[in-house]
Amino acid sequence: MFRSANIFVYAIFAFNIYGGLSEMTESPEIANLENLLEDGIRKCGESCYSTLKPLADHITTSEQRWSSCISRNVNDAHNKIKSQLAALQEKLAINSILSSSVEFQQIGGRYFYIAENETVDKLNLILAEQNQVETQLTAIHNKLESKMPANFEKIGTRFFYIEQTEQKNWFGASDACRQMGGQLATIRTRTEQAAIERKLTPMQVYWVDVTDLAVEGEFVSMASGKPANYLNWGYGEPDNYHDFQHCIFLYNHYMYDSHCNTGCLFICEAIDEN
Q: Which SS3 state, helix, strand or coil, does residue 161 take?
């Protein structure tokens, strides 16, 4: 009888501990349960052990399941907090960029980098000045084209007229250019000469505005009175043959002095008002 009473008391004790597991997050009492059971077994004998052993095993298994559940829930909660923290940090970073003083703004159809020491007003002023300059350049270009004599074409950076049919002496050629609103051409560079020659008839001679009529050997532009800054002489030129060759024509890539009354084709240039 006494032994049965002890078994009943230990069973109630174990049941109370097991029933309280659902309310515990950590159970140090359960960790000591086996010691308590062993002590009870020593008091009640072998029959107590065989009766309470299944109950003790059940309690141990339940404790393991409970510990695993708590660990899993804690890990899930930890991962959720980490995800929320990362999202918050990303949001703060975006807000920081949007609120900073460095940004790109669209002005006049283009995007500009706005630094702390620059303002939209300054950029608008720069754009306005740029547009004004472009307008002035367009007006100058239109003005020049409106004043351009008929039949002149742009070759390189300037406008020229090339007579391809009617031959005149140097004086007649100069007069014809003036009547068209231009003057005999003064070729300024080798590049310009090459561009003009692509428009010329091969093996033909063309008067240009260079002469030494005033002073022998001093070749100047008759239109400006200034020394010619580009002369591309042919072989042995200028030779002033028979002391009558004072006007210059262009022939087959080179310049030659010739008698001014020789009939030649000619090249006119538009008057450069600059």
A: strand
Q: Flag whether pLDDT at 33 surpasses 90.
A: no
Interatomic CA distance for residues 87 and 93, integer angstroms = 10
From residue 13, alpha-carbon distances to 25, 142, 147, 207, 240 in Å are 20, 111, 119, 132, 141
Give the residue from 159, 238, 229, 227 showing the smallest Cα distance to 199.
159
Q: Report the distance separating Cα 191 and Cα 271, nearest Å.
A: 20
What gap in Å lies between CA 220 and CA 133, rounded to an integer?
36
46-99 vs 2-19: helix axis angle to the nearest 10?
10
- Locate tokens 């009175």: which residue? 225
DSSP annotation of 238 reads -
- What whole-number distance in Å separates Cα of residue 245 and Cα of residue 225? 19
pLDDT tens-place string over residues 79-126: 777 777 777 666 666 555 545 544 555 555 665 555 545 566 666 777
